[in-house]
Sequence to fold (621 residues):
Amino acid sequence: MTAGRRLALALGGLGLILLAVAAVSLFVGSAGLSPGAVARALTGRAGAESVEAIVTLHLRLPRVLAAMLAGGALAVAGVAFQGLTRNPLAEPSILGVSSGAAFGVVLAQIFGLGLSALEALGVATFAFAGALLAAVAVYSIARVPGGLSIQTLLLGGVIVGIFFTSAITVLISIVDFNRLGGVVHWLLGNLAPIPAGALALFAMLALLGFWLVLRHARELNLLALGEEAAVQLGVDAERLKRRVFLAAALLTGTVVAFTGPIGFVGLVVPHLLRGLLGQDNRLLVPTALVAGGIFLLAADTLARNVVAPAELSVGVITSFCGAPFFVYLLRTRYRASL
Amino acid sequence: MSALVEFAEVAFGYPPAERPRARGFQLTGVSFAIEAGEVFGVIGPNSAGKTTLLRLLTRVLTPGRGEVRLDGRPLGRLAHAELARQIAVVPQEAPRPFPFSVEQLVLMGRYPHGPGRFFESGEDRALAVAAMEATGVLHLAALPLERLSGGERQRAMLARALAQQPRLLVLDEPTSHLDLRYQAETAALLRRLNVEGGMTVLLVSHDLNLAAEVCDRLLLLGDGRVARVGAPADVLRREVLETVFGCAVVVDVNPASGRPVVQVAWPDRGEPARGGEAHRSHA
Fold:
């Protein structure tokens, strides 16, 4: 079967799963709406001021969309970082890039930027700059002649992550806590409903990042052979790395700006897909967008309902899945390369 | 005959930070030309600059001084993909971290012929199949690279280079992982590509005897300079080799091909049959 047909098949299957998970997510929740009430709200037969319309259309639906976007963007960022570093364990949170973005967001909040569409663009810019700063720092730490070593890359990520987390703590300590009321909850990663304008901006930035990575998916395959081999096969490796680096930082920064630093999605989802589809980035990048959405949507549905009427942060769920998964990978598949 | 590749006074040194122990320049003022249609060999001791020369030719590195030209045009003026349509490299080692299949690897050789394409075309796939058939790895097409033996992996890399349809095929230590049968088959394939396909071949090797058998002309590198260029019989001479390699050697003639055969004159094995003078002079 050619790569194109495998991609179409995988996307079809994943799309159906995504629809199913989205439906479940819309129909369950602490408000205890009946399925009939949710269906009425979705089809516009409920009054605009009715409970089911507000809960379904203004609370659950934006949340479902945000989860799909955030999960997809993080998974694509994971594939991009893995291709760039030629390290299958690379991922925005492990590399400390999420922490850099979070630092940018806290800084933006101190300047008083909120979630109106224009201000959200400012927040996203700060997050992007923070992500880029952290990514460049990790990259320079881990770079040795002839490539990047797995160990120093992971260590560098930990260290950059700790640095930016400390910097966030400093900011929170010196600024009036009331101005940063939501920040602690936000730092755990959560998908509280986002205003429609900000959500549209979120979608635009995430899809821009996705499109940039997708355009270079074939070249990322060649880069996996090593930089020298990629150049000898006709890839402008320097330009490729620059562009994908920017795209991955954009994806990470965008997600962190709108939902907080949610960890491990970029590790778990690409790995499951690699097991299913192999190493071709042309298959991994588009399927990661959909499968990342499925994963985070399922995690968020769990987070909303497992301790209802209270709520867990979705970042807690992904970390509970991701951390053991990371250890498992480290102890089994990548033992030899450490 | 016209020069396909020209090195004009090319010098290159790694930055001190990247190679703290390297002395000064790796290559100093190297000039030579590879003619279209010939089989050209680059030989020399370890760290003489063979790999550096190969990287300069494929634009992985840029010369510090001088110029590398393809068809008279400086490499810097060619787009990356354009260069990869002209020159293909079979590297020594296949990469490890991501387990691509043989077919995926060979299809990567089609990238420079359609860099804007997302998936390969039907023609690309047909050419990849032909390349795998030519190097005898078609039956391994679906296997991940890491499951192959060293020799199979090298033939897969050769198939990838053939899929590039280059004018110049560069082989870096081509037979290091191949057993005798595949060495012979690879040599025969190279000859066929060269004679029937008109492909120019550049062989980089420290196997002097392989180079002597296969190549029309040889370039002997010593310590970053051209020690000698010419026909195998002119380059593989005892006094030249002993200066460059710094050890005593014996040069014979292969009775079948009439090409030179080089051996180390092993010390302390009693009186050697030939090259005794050389042995004594270095004792």
Observations:
- Chain A is about 75% helix and 0% strand.
